[in-house]
Write a structure and sequence with these properties.
ten-stranded mixed β-sheet; 9 helices; elongated; alpha/beta; 270 residues; single chain
């Protein structure tokens, strides 16, 4: 199952369309989810029942609009909708607990009708137990390539596996990029750690892979390499307590500035 969070924004609708195409490609169901205050999610009566009804009607309109767009984008996809009670970040993370992927827009609506810029995207990307795709309104048809951020650090196996599987599924090339340290002397990083890709290469021999080590800051290197790509895949790097993983600085910057969809894959144990 794939879960897509929608709020009526252009970015949210782009995420819904992207998720529908992905669900159709994978042959898995898609759940379009809209979060709203728990007290308004069901008709429980009380002094605010008219306000609650108005909010539910608005949520249903958002879901209906997203459903219409997903059917146009991916007619064969099996799509359902749901209103989720609670804060969008928590509600989406919980709804996506059994999912293989969670998709959200890079920013939602402002003011009273939504959250502040990027708060949902950043919140779920740092906490979800499954890969999170952060989608932008597509500017132009992308080039048929997936870009993978590689640094050889422990726990990056899931991100590598995701990128190879996605490239195989889409039948596109994979560009594995390592930001090499341009500083001379001990402690510098240089060539791309090819050993990290060996297992995935064996499992996906048909995926055309290009490995590239580029001198520079990881954020600048990855942003430059991923411009116009179908997808940029990176592992999460931070450590959290209680609520789960937090985003590392590189992943955080990529979500803010990348021009293509970004998938953040939770780190694991290789």
């Amino acid at each position: 199952m794939i879960v897509a969070g929608v709020d009526g924004s252009a970015a949210g609708l782009a995420a819904a369309r992207w998720a529908a195409a992905e669900a159709e490609l994978r042959g898995t169901p898609l759940l379009l989810a809209h979060a709203m205050p728990a007290w308004a999610c069901e008709d429980a009566g009380g002094p605010y029942q008219e306000v609650a009804r108005w909010m539910r009607d608005g949520a249903d309109q958002v879901l209906a609009g997203a459903l219409e767009q997903t059917r146009a984008a991916a007619p064969a996809a099996e799509v359902t909708t749901a209103r989720l009670p609670g804060d969008p970040r928590t509600a989406l993370v919980e709804a996506a607990a059994p999912a293989e992927l969670l998709a959200v827009g890079n920013h939602g609506l402002g003011g009273f009708r939504g959250l502040l810029l990027g708060s949902v995207a950043l919140g779920v990307a740092g906490r979800a137990g499954c890969p999170v795709a952060v989608v932008r309104t597509p500017p132009a048809p992308p080039r048929p390539e997936i870009v993978l951020a590689v640094d050889g650090a422990p726990g990056t196996g899931p991100a590598i596996a995701f990128a190879f599987e996605e490239a195989a599924r889409r039948r596109v090339a994979l560009l594995a990029v390592h930001a090499a340290d341009a500083r001379p002397g001990p402690g510098r990083t240089g060539d791309l750690p090819a050993a990290a890709l060996a297992g995935a290469r064996e499992r996906h021999p048909d995926v055309k892979v290009t490995e590239r080590a580029i001198a520079g800051h990881p954020v600048e290197v990855l942003l430059g390499a991923s411009g116009g790509a179908e997808l940029l895949v990176a592992g999460s790097r931070g450590r959290g307590a209680g609520t789960g993983l937090l985003l590392g600085s590189v992943s955080h910057a990529l979500l803010h500035h990348a021009t293509c969809p970004v998938v953040i894959v939770p780190t694991g144990r290789d």
